[in-house]
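YM 10:42: Cytoplasmic dynein 2 light intermediate chain 1 sequence, as discussed on the call
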Amino acid sequence: MSNCLQGKSQMILRFLDRNENTKPTIALEYTYGRRTRGTVKDVAHIWELGGGISLINLMDIPLTSKNIEISSLIIVVDLTRPEEMWNTFYGLIDAARARVDNVLNELNDRDPNAYDRIIRNNKKRLGEHKDASLLKQFPIPLAVVGAKYDEFQNFESEMRKNICKALRFMAHSNFASLQMFSNKMENLVIRTRALISHLAFDTSASKTLSTDFNKPLSIPFGADSFEAIGAPTFGDSTLTKIRATNPRDIWRDAFKEIFPQMMFSNKMENLVIRTRALISHLAFDTSASKTLSTDFNKPLSIPFGADSFEAIGAPTFGDSTLTKIRATNPRDIWRDAFNEIFPQMVIVKALLLFFVALGQELKNELRDDPSNDPQYRESEIDKLLEQKLRDLELYIKQKKDRQALEEKAERQLQQQSSSFSKKNSLRLQYASAGNLNSLESPREQENP
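YM 10:58: structure's back
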């Protein structure tokens, strides 16, 4: 999983040895790969998540208690966009860790033996590593892939050094493998295929170790150490501002000093994520968000059943409201109190304003529509949408043609059936006439 246009689809197609043109991953896409060992056929189910953090709740679909024991995760980061790297990686891995932890809790209730096996396997993978006490091991096998290395290798030496050190910290602190990838460099394609094959089919893990930032990094899980990675690079301003006390925050502050992280395009991405999670829960029955925020100084986020009248408190009354109040039920009491502070417009006026606003909106529709603004256009998405529309038009045309042919064939059958019925009727009439003639002819002979 990763943000859009970072090479995930190319990586998957190269692993599956398919020569196909890639398209942008819109949300969550599925494919599979097969591997035959003697008489045993293994199948790897591959789920590709595009859209980055904004679609993270779709992870609930592939990561379940039924398959978590055989699941693994690959996070792809764009090496050419360090200004997005930190926020993207930790946004994805924090959400993924929360999902996996929830699934493991469900598994522990449903199948404690399977849960114990996962815990034992994690301890076995960690072994006696000297950084064991400092690591926050990811609960399932994890790999970090740096994409677009063919472009990244042309960056300035100091920039490559700082990015590579940060990536090594990101991967090692979560006890993950680290691998560089480029669809244009066959040696990296081979290494990445070996990594995915190890995660998908449990083949032998590559033992290639490359930690030189002047070369493509290739570090199996457990082969790195904080001592080998070294300390982050600090600027003078970072040293004076630093307040962090744990390694992750120290590295974050140092990395963001060199590569200030770009804010998300949406005005308030955290609210977008929460709202998507709510809609996903209602539409697809994914796990409901448990985020609870009742502070009026912050965006409210209250799952159903998490609030209470006691916590809400009483409405705010003005002096005039207390003297006028006649309501006897909570809804009317709140209505009178709210109307005292915010007098409500009469419905006729509200409708009038609505139609005026609607007319103005229609006038400015072309001007205000973001899809018509060149700065918001995405050529890849536009091409994909045009292709989908052409496919839809072709499908509709073919469907109409099929219906026309079926109707024509049905009419021909009806005509043939009608013609056949008429011929049979005529034959019956001729046969009847023949019988009558044969009956009358003897009488005619007797009475010439």
